[in-house]
Specification:
The structure is a single chain. With 440 residues, the chain is an alpha+beta fold. The protein folds into four domains: 56 residues, no CATH class; 56 residues, no CATH class; 128 residues, Immunoglobulin-like; 158 residues, Roll (C8orf32 fold). Helices cover 34% and strands 25% of the residues. The strands form six sheets. It has a four-stranded antiparallel sheet with strand order 5-8-3-18, with no helix packed on it. A four-stranded antiparallel sheet has the order 6-7-4-17, with no helix packed on it. α10 packs antiparallel against α12 and α11 crosses α12. The radius of gyration is 22 Å and the shape is globular. The N and C termini lie far apart (46 Å).
């Protein structure tokens, strides 16, 4: 993905921002016929994929958007919608001359504005998941005695609009390392291949028809992670845990200025204090927000530190980048947030401290608990047990390798699908928690 550091030609960039996608495609086709560097060709071909993604993530017209707005919030009017739109709180684009609205724009209003968060109709399941997590965190703060849990789960993927194509499928599969162990496969929909436990992004691979549903059921044991009490093996950091990785993990001049601001008057020899300063800066200043597919961003850490918005993965990769710039080994850990009431994709980070080895840092969970300083600080070097991770690196290849563009080029939480000739965007995944038991 290094080609994303190559500038997009200004005329094509302008056409895309104006939503003039057909004209942009024509301009890209013309440019690709010219004698241009390989990296620019790769960038232009990827823009064609991005245009298709953009059309899918801005699916609603204005009438549909107002309906969603009124469904999510209590006691709101069309005038409220228009006022939010006028003041820039609603994400939209003009696509082919029509105003189109982002698929999760309404949820982001609740993240941005307190008065709307109070009006938001909250699902009972979300409240239960929040409560069970907070109860566990408070117990760990007071007892420092971590528990273990055995989890059985299922993930499935299907194509929304089957075309009777032969397809290849990759679903995430748990890694048996760090706080996760005893990983077992229980059942599958198809004959499968599982990548090595050493794979940085572990998958189970299937082949079949796009009219079929592909799924796997597995179990694993997960430990709550209190930084100084864990007995599991912690590997030494690698050179890659301190390195740049274009296009997102880049030690840019702007991020250097951000880091200097964060670490002003800090003892940079103390890695704990340095990492804590970075954690505080991001968890106290960046607001949680749903984002577009990661493939649509050129440099995530610079986006986060200029807009001060982002989701869990945006927090994590920004933290990882700044830690590496400060000389602290840092790596990615991601998969799901899992409770007895359900599961959803989630990302966090690991850092290597001289006195403790690898420890977890979950910035989005910490940031969402700003009202309780003790709970916010818990997520710096500690982690609850409501997790499944399948990825220990950001932007890593699958085994077997995927040939065409991934919906998420950097992570794998819900799976990917492709034909033997092209990528597939219109996939739909489902995560189910089959059982969640505390081990005695």
């Amino acid at each position: 993905m290094k080609f994303l550091t190559v500038p997009l030609p200004n005329d094509i960039e302008k056409l895309i921002w104006l939503g003039m996608f057909d004209q942009a495609k024509d301009s890209i086709a013309t440019r690709l016929k010219k004698s241009i560097p390989k990296e620019l060709k790769e960038r232009l071909k990827f823009e064609l994929f991005r245009i298709e993604l953009l059309e899918r993530v801005y699916p609603y017209n204005k009438k549909e958007a107002i309906k969603l707005f009124k469904k999510l919030f209590k006691d709101v009017t069309t005038n409220d919608f228009e006022n939010l739109l006028k003041h820039g709180y609603i994400d939209f684009r003009y696509i082919k001359g029509e105003q189109r609205f982002q698929e999760r724009f309404h949820f982001n209003i609740g993240f941005s504005l307190k008065q709307y968060k109070e009006k938001q109709k909250v699902r009972q399941t979300n409240q239960k998941m929040r409560k069970i997590t907070n109860d566990a965190v408070l117990r760990l703060i007071n007892s420092k005695s971590p528990k273990k849990f055995k989890v059985k789960a299922r993930i499935s993927i299907k194509r929304k609009e089957p075309k009777n194509d032969s397809v290849l499928v990759w679903l995430p599969f748990p890694i048996g390392e760090f706080q996760q162990e005893n990983v077992k496969i229980l059942n599958t929909s198809h004959t499968y291949k599982i990548s090595s436990n050493k794979s940085p992004q572990r998958t189970i691979h299937f082949e079949g028809k796009d009219s079929e549903i592909f799924w796997v059921e597995f179990s694993y044991t997960i430990s709550e992670w209190v930084s100084n009490s864990m007995k599991f093996s912690r590997p030494k950091p690698r050179k890659s845990d301190l390195s740049e990785k274009p296009p997102h993990i880049l030690f840019t001049p702007y991020l250097g200025k951000i880091l200097n601001t964060i670490l002003k008057d800090t003892d940079k020899e103390n890695d704990y204090i340095t990492a804590r300063k970075i954690y505080d800066y991001l968890s106290l200043n960046v607001s949680y927000s749903y984002v577009l597919p990661y493939a649509l961003y050129d440099n995530i850490p610079e986006y986060v530190t200029t807009t001060f918005k982002g989701d869990c993965g945006f927090y994590a990769i920004t933290f990882i980048t700044l830690c590496r710039m400060a000389g602290i080994p840092a790596k990615w850990q991601s998969g799901w947030f899992v409770t007895p009431f359900g599961a959803s994709p989630h990302d966090w980070a690991l850092i290597y401290l001289k006195d403790t080895g690898w420890v977890p840092v979950d910035l989005s969970f910490g940031s969402s608990r700003r009202e309780n300083e003790e709970m916010r600080l818990f997520y710096f070097t500690n982690l609850d047990g409501f997790r499944m991770f399948a990825n220990l690196d950001f932007q890593a290849d699958f085994t077997p390798r995927k040939k065409f563009y991934r919906n998420d080029p950097y992570d794998n939480q819900v799976g990917e699908m492709e034909t033997k000739n092209s990528y597939i965007i219109d996939t739909e995944s489902k995560i189910e928690v089959l059982s969640f038991k505390e081990l005695k």
